[in-house]
Amino acid sequence: MNKLMGTKWFTFYTKVRPVLSGLFLLVVLESFRLNLAIYTKIWWLTLFFAGAVAQFVLCILIAVKSGGDYPHFVRFTRKVLLFETIYTAYQQGVETYVRNFDVISALIVFFVILIASYFIWYRLNVKYFEKRLLPQRDETSASLGDAPSSGFHEGETGTAGESGQILFCRKCGAKLIANSKFCSRCGTRVLEEESLT
To answer: In the chain, count of helices (H) and strands (E)?
Structure first.
């Protein structure tokens, strides 16, 4: 984890979250084993169990894809984040219903958690991961009124050029050091931009 490059959340989401998802799956599996007849009889509990399994599998795929091409990783992550948002709300709704057997309370909890998760979990995460897809202008170039360069292409990495733009690694999304030949976080070779202004 490289705190200087701002990759703490990237490391958590791609390395720690799969472990947490696995621990949650173990709890659900134990509950499923102890209450097999109930889970197989009630469809919304079966869906709850299937969602826990799917979430774990998707977290593993996130960990695997995080080592590949970063733009492809972000496109996949958007879909996983949307699934996690919906499943988190569904999970809380199910737990509310199991506690008091009140459908209205369960639905209220579901929609409140869904809306909160969408803005707090989904939107913030998407913004975090996607901001590394495009070159960013630093404060100096912004104050001078320089136009941002459009030389960054999907699947490439560049160095921070004289125009003052900041680029990110195509593999791990870490911010690149000016004029570096390799990413300081993952070691991926930096490709020169085709057009720097």
So the answer is: 8, 2
How far apart (Å, rounded) are the C-alpha atoms in residues 24 and 19?
A: 9
Model's pTM, two decimal places?
0.66
Q: Strand runs (DSSP E) across the chain, as ranges?
A: 136-137, 165-166
Distance set, CA 67 to CA 45, 55, 61, 167 (Å): 35, 19, 10, 18
> What is the tens place of the pLDDT at every residue in 17-76?
999 999 999 999 999 999 888 888 999 999 999 999 999 999 999 999 988 888 888 889
Sorted by sequence, the CB contacts under 8 Å of residue 188 that are 6+ apart come out as: 157, 169, 170, 171, 172, 182
Q: Token match 């929609």: residue? A: 111
Residues 188 and 70: their CA atoms lie apart, in Å, by: 12
Whole-angstrom Cα distance, residue 79 to residue 74?
Answer: 9
Domain ranges of the chain: 3-130, 135-197
Run of H or E residues at 103: helix 103-117
